[in-house]
User: Fold these one by one.
Assistant:
Number 1:
Amino acid sequence: MTLLNALSVRWLVPAVLPFLRLLLTVFPEGPHPDHYPSPSTPRPDYDFVIVGGGTAGSALAGRLSEVPEWRVLLLEAGAAPPVESIVPGFSRVFYFPSDNNWAFNLHPQRHGLLSYSNRSSPVPQGRVLGGSSAINGMLYVRGNRRDFDNWASLGNPGWDYESVLPYFKKSEGYRGPPLQDTEAYHGREGPLTVVPKKGEHLQYTEAFLNAGLQLGFKTVDPTGPAQIGFAPTDYTIRGGERWHTARAYLKPAARRPNLHILKRATVLRVIFNEHKRAVGVEYKHKGKVWRVSAAREVVLSAGALLSPKLLMLSGLGHPSALGLHGIPVVADVPGVGQNLQDHMCLYGLTWTVGPHLPNTAKDIFSPKQISDYVHYRKGAFTSPIGQFGHAWAKVSEESGDPNWPDIQLYMASSGLAQEGVLASVALGLDKQKYLDQYAPLFGTTGMTIMPYLMRPKSRGSVVLRSRDPLDPPVVDPNYLSHPDDVHTLVNGIKLALKVGKTPAFAKGLGAQLYKKPLWGCAGHAFGSDDYWACFVRNMATTFYHFAGTCKMGPATDSFSVVDHNLRVRGVAGLRVVDASVMPVVVSGNPMAAIIMIAEKAADLIKEEWLAGAAEPQYSPSGHPHQHHSATPSPPSSGYHSIIS
């Protein structure tokens, strides 16, 4: 077995990354990193201080800096995106720990992840300008209109589908061919470039769409009003390069004198005055701790895992949880860090296919592919490597809206078996179990269909590990704690198997399901509901779509953290703008919805402050821009969860 066969293309990238990085930059035509200059001397005070330059924070900073008289500071813990992030075909690089992601790990799961080391998985969240939009798979999916109508019905006026649709359109710069039935739902002029997957001979994608038709589903544009159906993929790519929110929003705004972008600045806590108003933040930069004042607002856009962490470090949360770490209570907001949701992804369903189909591993690193990309931005590297398709369906039997999906299927033209041994490293699978199951298929041509759980009923939490701001949070999604989630994923498997049996797959691709019984499930009859339930508890894990930990809701909801204007309860001058405010995670990849939230938040802030509701009050507390010795408190021992 050759090394190339054993270590499939998508997992060879980290091993050869230094060589490829050199190839990308040595030629004048090659991609080069964007520059986001930092101020030589940050001001001691600004009108707005935004914490986190990720998917939401970059968009928000770009929009707020449109007001010339507002001074805006964006604090980002990471650096500018590296050159390899520009190349769509290198997206798998960021599954591995690096300076560009936080490299968290899930707390060991009680109800699942049986085949993962320590019943945990790595969590590569973006730690770079652009955040996870700079390291993710670039899929553009908005979710279902019922997601947003549900947000409004939960007591959040202004977040129904008709109200948020203009913000989706405002952000989107769709560059696909003219559309017919769904053109009115797209934006053509927005900063976020969206393109359909291009290329000839997309046999896998065509077979997937035909399989949907053979099963009675329509081929849909999921950006339109109907999401149930099968669809090709749209990506946030421009000219063969990744188009994340730092490139789309922040780079054009960086020329404005009223916007300062400070990289490698880790925020430690929000500072409040005696009236419980947020008046600034404390952050660490170049080994020193600094303070900066915010005359109007502090906005947390650190993401669903770090925004609640910062709130708790700053004294907002459940009093008993804060007391465990000796943090004085500023406001009793028990919902902080609760309501954690994620789309579980089921890995491991694998089909072999006929020899007439392409095997990307054998030609992706040919000199021609590299030359085509470096010189002309053409070829396989201009999009995520492989062929893809996705579909949405409602597979649960209970009553409910038949047009509100609970499963997303994602088809990819290689499977976990073809990914090679580094797949187990990237996903956290137990290496020996992985090899025992999938080593026989190394080097073969194949595909997978991965069911995602769209509307999980399980809820988890993000809690502090200690009062040390540099300690990672404890991320416990509490996967599969609700039995309906197992049942829904089992039904998702059944739908995937039906796809694999259609003529489009069985005859057109020669697809054959790999039927070796999974470790730990051999006691169940292969293909039975009990077998697939066992498969789910072994193989389903995170797909990094975290949301809900600073829940938006009315005052009557005791676990709401922000109101419908995204203002944090119990204090003043503080908002949260990121995926954490979603009361319920959307039915699809969340990047587009996060950007929509940032666009809408920018208008909410402009409407409030430009209406003259209040004049800025520069805080007299503390000494802005005064540095202190960095002496974080020692971590406390043990793990304390407040999940009921």
Note: The CA atoms of residues 237 and 418 lie 26 Å apart.
Number 2:
Amino acid sequence: MILSLVKIVVMLTLLSVISKVTFLGWHEINYSDSSLVEFLKAVIWGVRFDLTISLLLTGLSLLLLTPFAYFKRFYQGLFHAWLLVCGAWIIFSTMGDTIYLSQANRHVTVDLHLGKGMEFELLSTVVTQFSGLIVTAIAMLIAFAAFLNKFPQKITFSQRWYKSVSIALVFVVAVVAAVRGGFSDKPQTPMYAYKIGDINQARIAWSAPYAITYYSLVGEDKSGYRWTPEQSSLQMVKLQAKVNPNPKTKLNRLNQYDVVLVLLESWMAYDMQSYGSNVNATPNFDALRDQSLSTAAFYSNGFRTVEGVFATMCSQPNPVGGSVAGTRLESMPYRCLPQLLKERGWETSFVQGSGQGMVGAFAQSLGFSDSYGKFEYPEQGQDQNYWGYMDDGIYDFALDKLASASDVPRFIAINTGTTHDSYLPNKTDYVFGDETEEQTRRSVLHHADLSLGRFVKRLKAQTTRPTILLLVADHTMVSAKSDLRHVSIPFLIHGINLDIPTGTLPFSASHKDIAPTVVDLLGGQVGWFSGQSLLAKDYQEGADFTVNNQFYWLANDKMIRINAESGQKEACYRVGNDTVSLKSIDCSESKRTKAMYENGLNYLLYSQQHLFDGSTARY
């Protein structure tokens, strides 16, 4: 019996390691600078997690299938089917997690619950954009099935029942010990991968089958993870004196302007000529930016739509390396832009081209009265992709809502859809080609920009009210090896029937600055927003984003990487004139670098404490 258990554990562990080497190897070749030695070291270190999931699956087979052991032929067939399912879980969960890593710069953790209601769309995206990985996964599963067919595996039992029971009990204890990482006070979470001491190696050591199983079991209400240390009341008082010493709120007399905020799904500044690209993929946005208020660079505070929505609407950070949506943090009290405007008479609506899903419901939790998805659209023969309506259909729906008679101002947020996919209706629409990922991305972006141009033209023609038009990407759709392409996004604010300051401000900003700027343009001020109005005379530059447990703070053409758990300064960079290239510099180069590090760390500790305390409204 012992030998049969060991054989199954070893077999599943080897499959887990082979899957990791195959798929994460693909990721490291394409998206990372890890050396072969570092990769192999991380793979070997991470075998403990592969062994854990293998012990867990073998333990489940012992508990679930043993009652059928008396029916020998049936038991053998049942065990064969069970091991095939286990093999498929290991292979395809590793593949799916690698795809997510390539798109969101992190493994599946708390994000596991964000895909509810979007399963078909996610699957369609994977099939159309990562077909090579799917073929590889299927080939691996076929090879595994052939191996099982040639070398059938099952748990054999001793002729003496008490011997089998004793071995089974010992094995169950071993499984429990493995899952707990010993017998410490807390179970071993997938985050233990970071104990390897290097963020890049932790990425490789990670076990997707174990992580996804773990977060499926703990549930979305318990899956929010905190990296930053707890701050005492006294520490928070000291931090407030540095971060937000004189909070002021003025909301009594806001200008009754319409606000139209377009979240440009997955747009990246790297592909745009006005941000230094050598291709002209977005002529309409670029022309509008010349007549609008913008910044030299703008960076995303997240890697998923719900993260961009939260930072944009609430001017607060997401948890380091994760999202508010889909976790226990979602139920915390927030005082966000749509809620503030709704309380003062604005009609608030959120429009997207896909099903409402997590994004639409989350938007309503932040204060939008109405949320519209593809099932609310009238049948008008508009083009659709796998996610739902493409941009022309989304813009038409939003324009119809804005054109309806109303005596009150409107705040409408629009999440576009064309760039959520790689599909375009006609072969000729791929003006930059479709042979490579970059060509396809730019072709789809160009198609979306044409729709944006038509939308802005129609909006200007139909609206008679003073209107603030704000265009910003919710996030990008790429990873990056050693630059900022994965967080550099387009941004502008344009006045319609309204004079607002124009020009490109000579600094970097991020999502958290949008809500304060909108309120400022409406004639108000909010003291608990963590961002600042771009029009403030005393604006202090400080854009930020996080990847896993790393916090990045950008200001004055420099960037500092801070370990969110220890608060230690890990690396410093100079940002190039193109706003995406990076050059390593000595962190002790100047007093300004030291002050920048302190500002970033203070913001990190102060904002994360409020977030996890549910006290962002007292920021």
Note: Residues 355 and 407 are 29 Å apart (CA to CA).
Number 3:
Amino acid sequence: MIKVDISCFSRAALEIGHSGENDTLPYDLDAAFVKGMASELATLCLDLFQSIETGKVGKAVSFMNGLAIAAERLLVPSGPHGFRITTKIHPFWNLYLNGLGLAIAEANESQRSDRAHSYRLASEGPGFFDRGRSWRTYKLATLDELDLNQEGSVVIQTDISSFYEHIYHHRLESVLNDLAPDSTVAVQIDRILSQLAAGRSFGLPVGGQCARILAEVMMTPIDRSLSDSGLVWHRYVDDYTLICRSRQDAYKALSILSHALADYGLSLNRSKTTILSAKHYRDFVSAQLGDGEDASLALRELDLHFDPYSDSPTAQYEKLKQSFEKIDISFLLDLEREKSQPDAFVLAQIGRALKFQEPSVAVQLCATLLDADNLDSFRASWSKIMRGVYAVRANHEFASIFDAIDRLLDRIPSAAAHLLVPEANMLHYLRVIRFVRTDSRGVFVRRTYEDTQSASVRRACIDCWRHWRDRASFIRLRNQWQTLGADEQRMLWLAAGAFGDEGEHSRKQLRGTLSVAWRLGIEKHTQGDFGALFQEWVNHAS
């Protein structure tokens, strides 16, 4: 039974405020807004849910179909050569969706098999998921299942083809109805997903927590079917490992898995399906996990999560910092630079580790990471590298190396312009250059704003002008207010606080337009108002 109450939306707001709205994109000011107005927004979400659930708005399907749920699809690198689409959802609807998702996860968790290792629900926040259940623990669990003394035993490694993209909304709606047959939750989720998918009846929005929950809900009956068939299996998101007594049993197991997936409109990726002997599988997984690579093993196993909201954040930070005394990060980075295909996980760990280094070491690492030739080799890890550089550039303990890092960053548009084509990459870059204006950055941001079709990228440009207190750019956009989208207007409204009396005068002139410009279409059914909450937050943030 799905139970949607204020705690679902409150915890969702806490998670967004802590981790951001979308883990493929940089932390956005909308996440800070959700954090700052968590209680008020959670109340607004619950009010809306109850209005739909009780029929106050009329039929749920008709009401949901009449809403305009704003979202933008952005290009994100996936691996060294591929790309995928991520979805940046309007902050209110992202919170609403995640709150419903948490309620769904709480109802579904008890039905999940212990062999499903991905996105297991944590008992408390701020994060939704148990960080002790990882891809690494999934792989270790498959090794524990192996019997090397069983002659002829084999292991199948396979995954689902284009998993998130192929999840069929109506099948998902049926599974959700099984969890809550007397609720409108399934209808609401189905209608929201339909709008986010531009009317298509398949696909989950990549990057948000609710999508992960819904994917696991979809897989729960499939996993149960595999267990009922007697298969020995383990799963992490779309990766399956099947352990079989013989190659004949392996063929049968693949057939059973394929049938179970086909019932839900999914299929296996044939190019990624391999059958290995038990011994070869153990050796392969050991290599995947870094066993035997003494240089990087300590870094692989190190948990670099630092939670500033914990009871003892300073002690955690110092403990992590001390952990690096025995790890030569520079040596490991040089090893990755020499590889034809660098290890994305090691590079991600190096990016996360930057803020724990001494300034003299951090600047050397940044010089290597931001070198144009190396950036191209490291392109699959762009977001992790930029997050790491941002963490250093935002910390005044590293002030002595700010100039050196800024010079490295300013070379990127001319030396590696192709890496800024995906919108997600551009957002990460704009975030890390917003600390200080240079002539080259002024030209770059102005040209980017004028050339892009992405509202999210234009917002990031406005944020640069806000940090730089670029009055000329503010006045130019202020005069174009009526042509700006609602998301750009909200960013410009926040930016006005950086321009003194002129900014405040602009707010007074424009305030009367906001009740229409920022409407969500839910106002007459709820006591709160999203636009009013954003204005209230800005008053405190400015």
Note: Residues 306-313 have pLDDT under 50 and may be disordered.
Number 4:
Amino acid sequence: MVQTLNDVHHQFASFFKSPGLQPYAYLVSRKLSEGHICLQLDSLEEDWESLPSVFKEQDSVTFNLELEQQVGKDNLDTQPFILSNNRLYLQRYFKYETAILERIIEFTKAGQREREKRLLGLQKHSALIKDLFKAHSSTDLPYCDWQLAAAITAVLNNFTIITGGPGTGKTTTIAKVLAILFATDSDLKVALAAPTGKAAARMAESLKSAKIALDERTKERFLALEPSTMHRLLGYVPGSIYFKHNSGNPLPYDVVIVDESSMIDVAMFSKLLSAIGPDTRLILLGDKDQLASVEAGSLFGDLCQSQDQLNLFSKDYIQLINSFMDGKFKPLSDYSSPTITHPLFEHLVELQVSHRFKGDEGIGKISRAVINNDQEVIKNFMTSNTDPQVRFDSSYSQELFEEFVSGYQEYIQEPDIATALKKLNKLRVLCAIREGEQGLYTTNRKIEKVLSDKKLISLKGDFYEHRPVIITSNNYTLGLYNGDIGIVRPDNQGNLKVWFETAEGKLNGILPGLLSQVETVYAMTIHKSQGSEFDQVLVLLPDTTEVAILTRELLYTGITRAKSEVYIQATEELVLETAARQVSRASGISERFLNLS
């Protein structure tokens, strides 16, 4: 009975009086908690076996969902469940998915209406475009200029997805897109957003420091760009699931650019698209191979994978891109496909060349091996352990752990708070889980002990001097957002405060008593690390294979947070099993897209 009372899915299912519906209600609720948008009815065997015994006894053999009164069939129905394409949804999530699909179709059609005018604009600024995308190489390059292809796509369309791994130049591409758009309209209104404040600030900082030649007016426009969390962009309404900006009150921008889009759940995705007018350009950036959102849905990945193959274009489109491409790049002649009719055809570009990592060594090679489940390459890395960028430690060496975390002394001994914050973010321990020996909480306590034993910190009180903290819930009153990181230091009067860097690069000191939703952040979860980069990373996996969240996407995300060095503490068996396990979240995006086009 205790187990039943604590099982929220059981409580939800028991609310419905139809015995035949209850097992399905239980599974839909549980799937939602696991990140799925719906329940796939054509692969229920394993799920059905995991049902509580009370539901297994129900007569499901003769039960027909299509005849159930509480199950609707389309977006106009108001029943609590919707049955569509052999998938069962909670009504609200079916409506989210429907709204996303319909809005994307609207964006693509609106962009098509502007196509001729925008083509003329591209031709008018041909010299600028060629200068922006000039190859900085003395020899011919063996790859296409995918950044140029993405930029042309973003300028022409009202809906564009640009995906790519670390160092492939997503932000650089956007900087060049904005340079072209500002040349067309110097008064263009642009919004930058990301799921977390840290990710938004990093995008804005990268755009402002982009190494491209700009005139003074355009430089001013870049410096004026202000990053925002998605909640702040849409206008958070306290105590409500709704936002100030919606379909009836769209955002007042000409261009909206959203980074780290893989972190956006289905509900936020729907609300974002609804708040953007059809004449506004929406550009989504992200890495399709990274972890999906913590909440339900993997919309960015679903959209990227809704076509069988990326980076295929019509012959006319290829000719257009090649007309701007520096002759040192390989032309796009091999990427022609005149038969594709998918709604996202020529709206989605994958950047395929990393300028940060080499593909044949180091972080670039191991991250690619993990996401592609290349077991032989992974084994070679682990057995040789000679790569200067990547080090595996299957013994969970305490010596290696202490050596790594001793690097935190650099920020602790830095007297300037702003500089200390930057030095804090040079390294980070990343945990896959929260509980257990290799979990977040135990790891942070271990690091505190190492630093305390070295007399670098004194653990007096919850908010001790030098303690690094991360905000775990948005606090709109204080202007702090989930993922913001600060350190505890005294102010000029000797009062301890928690210091954060604002989006404008200034320091904001908050009294500790005003902060309730914070955690120590010497170590953080891999999920929380999305949108961040560190020079050095220690990825700590739990010493057990019995953890469902250990997937290739999780390990890939952890590894690719590192810019120069990554240490991985995990057994060979665990790493190989993790790389073999892939995230799979149920949704109807791909199939329904084809029906809406």
Note: The mean pLDDT is 88.
